[in-house]
Amino acid sequence: MKQNFTSFIPQAVYRRSHSPFPRNKKLKQLRRKKIALIMFIVGMLLAAIASLAKSYEWAYIQESLTLGFAGYLCMISSAAYLLLSLLQTWR
Fold first, then answer.
1. pLDDT in tens, 4-55
2. Which domain holds residue 74?
3. Among residues 13, 24, 47, 79, which is most buried (max CB within 10 A)?
4. Which segments cross the bilayer (predicted)?
């Protein structure tokens, strides 16, 4: 009377998600590096907008400075990820 755990899951979904073959690790690392590079560029843009808002004294300067701070955080975290991935491949 006790049913198997996989009987509730359609077999096609179960086979696809539990493949015995490992996925390509290099492809995942490349995708993560692209995301980190995009986040670095977005952070640079946000920081540039904040510096322009401060120098030209725009109306919503406090909000733009907050976005600039978020941009700095994006830049720092993505640079840290890229450097750590470089160290891992260099090892």
1. 555 555 555 555 555 555 568 788 888 999 999 999 999 999 999 999 999 9
2. 24-90
3. 47
4. 35-53, 65-87
- Quote the pLDDT of residue 3: 57
The answer to whether position 85 is within a domain reads: yes
Is the CB of residue 65 less than 8 Å from the CB of residue 71? Answer: no
Predicted local distance difference test score (pLDDT) of residue 25:
79
Number of domains into which the chain is organized: 1
C-alpha 89/C-alpha 68 separation (Å) is 32
Could you tell me which residues come within 8 angstroms of residue 64 by beta carbon, excluding any fewer than 6 positions away?
Answer: 49, 50, 53, 54, 58
Are the C-beta atoms of 29 and 84 separated by less than 8 Å?
no
If we measure between CA atoms, which residue out of 68, 6, 81 comes closest to residue 37?
81
DSSP string, 16-51: HHT-SSPP-HHHHHHHHHHHHHHHHHHHHHHHHHHH
